[in-house]
Amino acid sequence: AALNDGLRSQVSAALKEGRVAPTELCQRCLALIKSTKFLNAYITVAEETAMKQAEESEERYKRGQPLGILDGIPVAVKDNFNTAGIETTCASNMLKGYISPYNATVVQKLLDQGAVLLGKTNLDEFAMGSGSTDGVFGPVRNPWSYSKQYKEKSVPKSDSEESDWVITGGSSGGSAAAVSSFTCFAALGSDTGGSTRNPAAHCGVVGLKPTYGLISRHGLIPLVNSMDVPGILTRCVDDAAVLLGSLAGHDPKDSTTIQDDFEPFELPNLTDVSKLSIGIPKEYHAPGLSSEILALWSKAADLFKNAGAKVVEVSLPHTRYSIVCYHVLCTAEVASNMARFDGLEYGHRSDMKDSTESMYAATRREGFNDVVRGRILSGNYFLLKQNYEKYFVKAQKVRRLIANDFVKVFRSGVDILLTPTTLSDAAPYTEFIQEDNRTRSTQDDILTQAANMAGLPAINVPTALSERGLPVGLQFIGRSFQEKQLLTVAKWFEKQVQFPMIQLEEVKRHDSGVFQHQKSASFS
Amino acid sequence: LAPWAPVVGLEIHAQISSNSKLFSGSQVQFAAPPNSLVSFFDASLPGTLPVLNRRCVEAAVMTGLALNCSINKKSLFDRKHYFYADLPAGYQITQQRVPIAVNGCLSYSLCIDSKMSQMVTKTVRIKQIQLEQDSGKSLHDDTRSQTLVDLNRAGVGLMEVVMEPDVCCGEEAAAAVRELQLILQTLGSSQAVMAEGQLRVDANVSVHHPGEPYGVRTEVKNINSIRFLAKAIDYEIQRQIEELENGGTILNETRAFDSKLGCTVPMRDKEGKQDYRFMPEPNLPPLILYDTKSLPANMNHQQVINIDWIHERLPDLPSVKRKKLVEKYGILPEHSFTLLNEDGLAEFFESVVKRTQMKPKKVIGWILNDLLSYLKQHSLTVKESPVSSFLLGDLLNLLEKKEISSTAAKQVFAELWKGEGKTPLEIVKEQKLGLLQDQKELEQICQAVIDGQENE
């Protein structure tokens, strides 16, 4: 089996048939993590526990009793999910050294199905950002910066390769980089305004944002409780469906998960799209959208049309308000959610001892970066009694309008919406940091944010390489809880576009076995 | 001099009697070792989420129904933000926008005179009842300049009962709170023992001249008993009147009742005016309650609360119990109040009535005058009474059958009180307290006495 194999179709079969052992897979991934350390995708690598899990998995396979498709599969988890016994930092000084006593529900589910947890991935501090550049452990580097495809196309700005690397996007950049560089088969991210889809697009991987309420948030350290979802990052759509099947469902520990039973599904191989209606929302032709991506989007629409689907232009008129609306609601919730970080029960505690209040203030000043502190201050401002109606309530009303836009469009007969995921391909790090976090987030979230407002499922599918040799993805947005339809269409599209596999020197070295150079990451 | 009208608005926090906390599964228990009843959620560990405790909702519905409130079929949870060592999350989950119950009323009675011979009924309107979390406890150790935090109580369910300012003095407040306490204890929704912090009362006090707008109010806290409640309120009313009559002004402040000095003192000003930055609690969907009409057909009954079902199963409230006692036993209304006021006394009374032929109207005298005063003298509860209802019943039978005089009966009672295990009959025999019915024997005794007198 190769590191680039699809889970259901190949790796799982290989494990079952004994062609490859879980310990071998684990070792290969751990070695690759080491040799791709410069990507800074991982904050913590749990080598010992991972090998132990792999050994236990191996025992099960030997007995012919694997727990399921995920048994023995190496995975990574964004460092804002609680993992018992393994540090959970949120890339913040506030939680450096924090060892949680419990597993997030999604982590527990993965472990219960025999997945091998390789480690915790890097992110923007407390998931605030769109570059994965603002965490205390430093920025994550996009693996494509070191790909043959990028090196061939890009004109080096300086002699040193060091300064030419591009960002992963964010805030789940570490998870996206981990999947993109083959160090794991799947990774968990989180998505509040696009934090799974954005880095997925920049790193050329599949990034799924499930419907709000489908997957438990218990144990996911929250950014915006009413918009956060655990995100799934994989190398192909089929794998995303496998992960979804293992994670979705009601959790009594999370009162915002729906009660209905969830049935995991296998994706059919769609051949006839003539019954599909694809909506193209005109407002997503946003200012700053690169001509390259615009062209790609258009090409994709034509692809569906030529295959017999109905492709219609639709309107989501309140799209342009979603960013400012998000800004109000997000900062308000952040101010509230961060109030618990006072150094008293856990996490960083300042040495300041003059009084409780001064200890709190010093702890929070020392523990949080500028971005977090800025959002807390804004949020508290919006929540002041005199401002509440003007800002918070108003924003909630606008949120309802945004959500209604989607309802109307889906009611009019449209099945799936097709939009770009990002405005352009990944920016070089040196260029990205010219603007502050707030400005970047405002720009980069525009195409992904509305789906979080409305709680809808959305997925990034890697589509093509840009002129610079970097990945560009397109986004599909579906109806609430209609992940099966969404993923089925995404899978069809993935097959059509045959997105090229990243050509990374390091990966070649470590996948000495049955490395098969394939033009695309999808499988027939 | 223009008359002053005092206005008192009570805010009562009643700890819900439940096995576990309002939003987490950790236990509720008084005086457990510090920080031994703290779940991950209570400690505000990041990533933990609240899960609503069904029993707490039922307790609030019961209480709302007993106080004649409208139960809101849809109520909401909010976050109330402030920083304090005993509030781990930096916010309390409460119900600020739409509480679980609104617009009720509580009837209570007062004695007009000190002889308890005339009672008047008053009502106080209940503005609302809301569910909210209790905070932890912090102890300030000034010698070591440190604060010790115990989170055992953090997250315990509370019902906050907000009353309209219909009360006008300490006595009324005490009577109203006492009645509320009895109701809660009867329902079992709260054990409402003030000494254990299960019932906390804050009083908002102001004075004004009738016809003029309300005066500035102060909030009086740190009241640890019903007796102190009355004292604190009356002191504060007096203080405000004196202040105003001397040309001063009343500050809108929080004052603590000092039970030793019997006065209210300004509390350490925490942070001036607080803006709690209320925000909806995003992790809890609206709380939906049903009644028989609105209950969907195929709903899993574990998941829903039916208000009508709870209403049908409410126990007799104190007012109903009193009425029944008066009707059944022919006792006075004042008597029924006293019976219900002492834990277990009504049951004791009924037990004695069963055991004896003496009429309840006469039994009640023994209960209220003799038994109760002995109990009070020795600071005992009815449960701790050395005289059981059986013993008293037997004693009263002796009296009823005229085997002893009422004076002798009191003597026997005093002896029984010693709790030496003797029956009334045994005591009578021992102390030769039996009434002599024999005419001849009586004449002999009388003659002996007369003879004795003549010799002096």
Automatic annotation (TrEMBL), chain A:
<keyword id="KW-0496">Mitochondrion</keyword>
<dbReference type="GO" id="GO:0070681">
    <property type="term" value="P:glutaminyl-tRNAGln biosynthesis via transamidation"/>
</dbReference>
<protein>
    <submittedName>
        <fullName>GATA amidotransferase</fullName>
    </submittedName>
</protein>
<dbReference type="GO" id="GO:0016740">
    <property type="term" value="F:transferase activity"/>
</dbReference>
<dbReference type="InterPro" id="IPR036928">
    <property type="entry name" value="AS_sf"/>
</dbReference>
<dbReference type="InterPro" id="IPR023631">
    <property type="entry name" value="Amidase_dom"/>
</dbReference>
<dbReference type="GO" id="GO:0030956">
    <property type="term" value="C:glutamyl-tRNA(Gln) amidotransferase complex"/>
</dbReference>
<keyword id="KW-0648">Protein biosynthesis</keyword>
<dbReference type="InterPro" id="IPR004412">
    <property type="entry name" value="GatA"/>
</dbReference>
<dbReference type="GO" id="GO:0050567">
    <property type="term" value="F:glutaminyl-tRNA synthase (glutamine-hydrolyzing) activity"/>
</dbReference>
<dbReference type="GO" id="GO:0032543">
    <property type="term" value="P:mitochondrial translation"/>
</dbReference>
<feature type="domain" description="Amidase">
    <location>
        <begin position="28"/>
        <end position="487"/>
    </location>
</feature>
<keyword id="KW-0436">Ligase</keyword>
<dbReference type="GO" id="GO:0005739">
    <property type="term" value="C:mitochondrion"/>
</dbReference>
<keyword id="KW-0067">ATP-binding</keyword>
<dbReference type="Pfam" id="PF01425">
    <property type="entry name" value="Amidase"/>
</dbReference>
<keyword id="KW-0808">Transferase</keyword>
<dbReference type="InterPro" id="IPR000120">
    <property type="entry name" value="Amidase"/>
</dbReference>
<keyword id="KW-0547">Nucleotide-binding</keyword>
<dbReference type="GO" id="GO:0005524">
    <property type="term" value="F:ATP binding"/>
</dbReference>
Automatic annotation (TrEMBL), chain B:
<dbReference type="GO" id="GO:0005739">
    <property type="term" value="C:mitochondrion"/>
</dbReference>
<dbReference type="Pfam" id="PF02934">
    <property type="entry name" value="GatB_N"/>
</dbReference>
<dbReference type="InterPro" id="IPR006075">
    <property type="entry name" value="Asn/Gln-tRNA_Trfase_suB/E_cat"/>
</dbReference>
<dbReference type="GO" id="GO:0005524">
    <property type="term" value="F:ATP binding"/>
</dbReference>
<comment type="similarity">
    <text>Belongs to the GatB/GatE family. GatB subfamily.</text>
</comment>
<keyword id="KW-0547">Nucleotide-binding</keyword>
<dbReference type="InterPro" id="IPR017959">
    <property type="entry name" value="Asn/Gln-tRNA_amidoTrfase_suB/E"/>
</dbReference>
<dbReference type="InterPro" id="IPR003789">
    <property type="entry name" value="Asn/Gln_tRNA_amidoTrase-B-like"/>
</dbReference>
<keyword id="KW-0067">ATP-binding</keyword>
<dbReference type="GO" id="GO:0016740">
    <property type="term" value="F:transferase activity"/>
</dbReference>
<keyword id="KW-0436">Ligase</keyword>
<dbReference type="GO" id="GO:0050567">
    <property type="term" value="F:glutaminyl-tRNA synthase (glutamine-hydrolyzing) activity"/>
</dbReference>
<dbReference type="InterPro" id="IPR004413">
    <property type="entry name" value="GatB"/>
</dbReference>
<dbReference type="InterPro" id="IPR018027">
    <property type="entry name" value="Asn/Gln_amidotransferase"/>
</dbReference>
<dbReference type="InterPro" id="IPR014746">
    <property type="entry name" value="Gln_synth/guanido_kin_cat_dom"/>
</dbReference>
<dbReference type="GO" id="GO:0032543">
    <property type="term" value="P:mitochondrial translation"/>
</dbReference>
<keyword id="KW-0648">Protein biosynthesis</keyword>
<keyword id="KW-0808">Transferase</keyword>
<feature type="domain" description="Asn/Gln amidotransferase">
    <location>
        <begin position="347"/>
        <end position="456"/>
    </location>
</feature>
<dbReference type="Pfam" id="PF02637">
    <property type="entry name" value="GatB_Yqey"/>
</dbReference>
<dbReference type="GO" id="GO:0030956">
    <property type="term" value="C:glutamyl-tRNA(Gln) amidotransferase complex"/>
</dbReference>
<dbReference type="GO" id="GO:0070681">
    <property type="term" value="P:glutaminyl-tRNAGln biosynthesis via transamidation"/>
</dbReference>
